[in-house]
Each structure stands twice: as C-alpha cells, then as structure tokens.
Specification:
By secondary structure, the protein is mainly α. The chain contains 8 helices and no strands.
C-alpha cells in the first residue's frame, strides 16, 4: 500500500479526470477518498480543500453535517462511506483508471495533431498543377483496380475450364441389343441343361 500522500494525489487526479469527463458522482467519490488520505497523512489543509470542493458540487453532501473532514470520517456514517469507497476503488483499480484516462488523452492529442497537420491552411487552394497531378494519380489507381479485376476474372475462368471435365458425368458404354439376346439365350440353355441333368440323377 502506498503512502497516504501518494494516495491523496492519485485520488485527486482521478477527481480531476472525472470532472473533465463530466462524471460528477465519481468526482465527489474520489474527492472523499482524497480527503481521507490527506487526513491519514496529517494534512488537514488538503483534506479541507477536498471537503470544500465536494460541498461546492453538492451542498447536501454528508461532509456538510460536520465541521471538518476528520470529524466526518470519525462519525459512523462517514466511516462507512469511506470504507465503501475504498472497497470500490482500491489502489490498484484507481491506478488502472488513471492510466487508462491518461492513455485516452494521449490518443486524442495525437489525433488532433494529425488532423491539424492534414488540414490545409485557411484560404489555401491547390494550384492547377497539383490538381492535375491528383487527377492523374486517381486515374492510375482506377486503372490498377480495373486491371486487378480483369486478372481475377481470367483466373476464375481458367479454373472453371480446368475443373469442368472432372464434373461432367461419364458416358456409359451401350451394349448392342443383339448381344443382349444372345446372352439371354445362352443363359436359358445352360439353365435348361442343368435342370435336365438333375432330373436324370433323381430317376
């Protein structure tokens, strides 16, 4: 657990971040935590500054029922409030929230910087040569896209032509009718012969 002074600075920075992002309830919670940490550090001036900020935002806050932050935190309802907020925003979570807020600020700063650089100065216009170059570049990109589409179409056609023979049903060889009649006749004769032989054996 860090020193109370470090906790005070952490929660105070979170209160400022909540103020910037228009989250008044979180701002007051972090101010209460900052005031509690200041009391633990023995810095009554910082604790009272936090109390004053809370009451400016919310005159009906619990802090208004007591003359000092120390008195409020010593009362049962004040102690319960402080303990609940510590459980909600322990040091690790508070540190994570502050880091995330600062990372978001850096991203927004980079976006704004890039946008500002890309934006032409007021009154600045492209000359004819620049406009023609831009048009030429656009035509090249369109031509490249058309060529790519043509190649993809040719490739699909080649694949379809290569696969088509394998997908066609194979033609079965047709047996002539005369051959079928001959097969049936021979089979009938063989069968009749076997029947005759069996009948002779039985006798």
């Amino acid at each position: 657990m860090p020193a109370p002074e470090a906790l005070h600075d952490l929660y105070l920075n979170l209160a400022r971040a909540a103020e910037e992002t228009a989250k008044p309830q979180q701002r007051d919670r972090f101010l209460v935590l900052a005031a509690s940490a200041a009391c633990q550090a023995g810095d009554a001036e910082k604790a009272e500054a936090c109390r004053t900020a809370v009451l400016q935002h919310d005159p009906a806050h619990l802090f208004g029922n007591y003359p000092t932050v120390e008195a409020a935190l010593e009362a049962p309802d004040g102690a319960d409030l402080a303990n609940m907020l510590v459980r909600m925003y322990p040091f690790e979570k508070a540190e994570f929230l502050l880091d995330r807020h600062r990372a978001g600020e850096q991203r927004e700063s980079v976006k704004a910087s890039v946008s500002e650089r890309a934006r032409p100065a007021r009154g600045e216009r492209k000359g004819p040569a620049e406009a023609m170059q831009a048009l030429s570049d656009l035509r090249k990109r369109l031509a490249s896209a058309a060529e790519l589409m043509r190649r993809q179409t040719d490739t699909r056609r080649e694949i379809a032509a290569a696969v088509a023979p394998a997908l066609e049903p194979k033609k079965r060889a047709m047996v002539p009718l005369s051959a079928c009649i001959a097969y049936v006749t021979v089979a009938f004769a063989v069968g009749a012969g076997m029947v005759l032989m069996l009948s002779l054996q039985v006798r």
